[in-house]
Specification:
44% of the residues lie in helices and 18% in strands. It is built from 15 helices and 15 strands.
C-alpha cells in the first residue's frame, strides 16, 4: 500500500514538472523572440524614437481646450511620421507624443513635466496654460528641457528663461483694438467676469488700467472659477445690476460660451470683450450660432482666415478628427513642425539648448503647406513673432477688425 502511494506521488510530481516546462516554453521565458521588422534583413536601417511631452487639461471643464491643443501637436507628429522624412544628423527618427492630464492645475503640470523628463526623456514639453508654464520654469533650465508654451502671457517670456518658446502672440497687443472697438460700439462702462486662473488675473490687471486710461469705468470686478462653478447666475446678476455696457469674459471656450449665453438670457444686450484663450468658433459649438455673441470682439477664428495653407489644413483636420480646427490646434500644429525643423537644423534631437538656438532656422525652413500662420521669426525673448488677427461678431457673422 505504501509502495502504491509512493509511486502515485512520483507520477504526480513528474506530471507537474512536465506541465510547468510546457508553460515556460509557450510563454517565451528567456528565449529570444524573432524580429518583428517584417523583412528579416539584418542590414535594415535603424529608426530612433523621439518622445514629445504634453501636459494639459484632458479632464474637467477645460478638457475641450486641452484636447484641441493636443490635437494640433498630434496631427503634426502623425504627418512627420507618415512622410518619413524626419532625419537628423544622418539618422531617421519617428516622433511619439506622451500626453498627461494636469486638470488645468499648475502643480500637476510641474509634476507631469518631471515625470516626462525622467521616464520618457522628452526634450520638449508642451503645455497650454500660463500657470503650468510658470511652474515648469522653476526647474526646466536645470533639468534641460524646452517648454512649448501655448499661452499669450507676457510674463513667461519676460522671465528670461532660455528654454521657453512662446507660441501665440502676447495678449497685451489686444488691449488697444479690443478697447477701441468695445467703447465705440457699446460704451465705457465695463464689468469684469474672466476666468479666475492666474492667466485671467494677469489679463485683468493689464486691461483695467488701460480701460480707465481711455476714459472708461469699471463698474464690477470679479472672476469665475470654471473648475468649480457651472452656474453663473448669481455673479452675472450682480454684475448686470451695475448696468455695464460691456462684459469682459474669457477662459476655456466651452464655459465662456455658457457664460455669454446666460448673460443674454438674463437680459444683457451689450458687447463682450473675449480674452484670447476663448475662441469664437469653439464658443459657437456651444451657443449654436454667432447671434448670442453679437457685439463681441476677440481673436479671428482659424477657419475664417485667408492664409493660403489653411484650406488644406482644415480639410486634413476634419478628416482626422471629424470637426473643424481652432487656433489652439493650428498654432500647436505649426509649433510642432517648427520644433521638428529646428531639430534638423541643430543636428540633434536630444540637446534642447541646440534645438532652441535653431528655432529661427526651423521657422524659416517650414514647408509652405505647413504655414497656416505667418511667423517670420522668433524674438530674443523666445516668443514667436506673428501678427495679431482680430475679429468681431456683427449680425451673426465674423468680421475682420484691423489691429494697429
Amino acid at each position: 500500500m505504501k509502495r502504491s502511494k509512493f509511486l502515485f506521488m512520483v507520477s504526480f510530481l513528474f506530471a507537474v514538472m512536465l506541465s510547468l516546462a510546457a508553460c515556460n516554453q509557450s510563454s517565451g521565458g528567456d528565449t529570444e523572440e524573432p524580429s518583428d521588422s517584417g523583412s528579416g534583413d539584418s542590414g535594415s536601417e535603424e529608426v530612433g524614437t523621439v518622445n514629445i511631452g504634453y501636459s494639459g487639461p484632458l479632464s474637467g471643464p477645460a478638457a475641450f481646450y486641452g484636447e484641441r491643443t493636443l490635437s494640433g501637436v498630434q496631427m503634426a507628429v502623425d504627418e512627420i511620421n507618415e512622410e518619413g522624412n524626419f532625419e537628423v544628423d544622418g539618422k531617421k527618427y519617428k516622433l511619439n507624443v506622451v500626453a498627461l492630464d494636469d486638470k488645468y492645475m499648475p502643480n500637476e503640470a510641474a509634476g507631469n513635466a518631471q515625470r516626462l523628463i525622467q521616464e520618457n526623456k522628452t526634450p520638449i514639453v508642451f503645455t497650454p496654460h500660463s500657470g503650468g508654464v510658470l511652474a515648469m520654469q522653476v526647474f526646466n533650465e536645470q533639468q534641460n528641457f524646452i517648454i512649448g508654451a501655448y499661452t499669450s502671457e507676457p510674463k513667461i517670456t519676460e522671465a528670461g528663461n532660455s528654454l521657453t518658446v512662446r507660441i501665440p502672440p502676447r495678449y497685451d497687443g489686444y488691449l488697444e483694438p479690443f478697447t477701441k472697438y468695445a467703447m465705440e460700439k457699446h460704451g465705457k462702462k465695463i464689468a469684469f467676469l474672466p476666468t479666475a486662473s492666474q492667466y485671467g488675473k494677469d489679463w485683468s490687471e493689464k486691461l483695467a488700467p488701460f480701460w480707465e486710461k481711455e476714459g472708461g469705468e469699471i463698474v464690477y470686478n470679479s472672476s469665475i472659477d470654471f473648475a468649480k462653478d457651472t452656474d453663473f447666475f448669481t455673479l452675472i446678476t450682480n454684475a448686470l445690476k451695475e448696468d455695464p455696457d460691456v462684459l469682459f469674459i474669457g477662459g476655456p471656450s466651452e464655459p465662456t460660451a455658457k457664460l455669454a449665453a446666460q448673460a443674454r438670457e438674463l437680459g444683457f444686450e451689450g458687447g463682450f470683450i473675449v480674452m484670447d484663450q476663448a475662441k469664437f468658433d469653439e464658443m459657437k459649438r456651444v451657443t449654436g450660432s454667432y447671434d448670442v455673441l453679437n457685439g463681441s470682439i476677440g481673436v479671428m477664428p482659424l477657419v475664417e482666415s485667408d492664409t493660403p495653407a489653411i484650406p488644406q489644413f482644415v480639410e486634413n483636420y476634419r478628416a482626422k478628427f471629424d470637426e473643424e480646427p481652432g487656433s489652439e490646434a493650428g498654432l500647436n500644429y505649426i509649433g510642432m513642425h517648427a520644433f521638428a525643423e529646428a531639430m534638423k537644423a541643430a543636428g540633434s534631437v536630444d540637446d534642447p539648448k541646440k534645438i532652441r538656438e535653431a528655432m529661427k532656422e526651423g521657422l524659416a525652413n517650414l514647408p509652405e503647406e505647413k504655414k497656416i500662420y505667418i511667423i517670420p521669426g522668433i524674438g530674443d525673448d523666445g516668443g514667436f513673432e506673428s501678427e495679431l488677427i482680430v475679429a468681431a461678431v456683427e449680425d451673426g457673422k465674423i468680421v475682420p477688425i484691423e489691429a494697429e
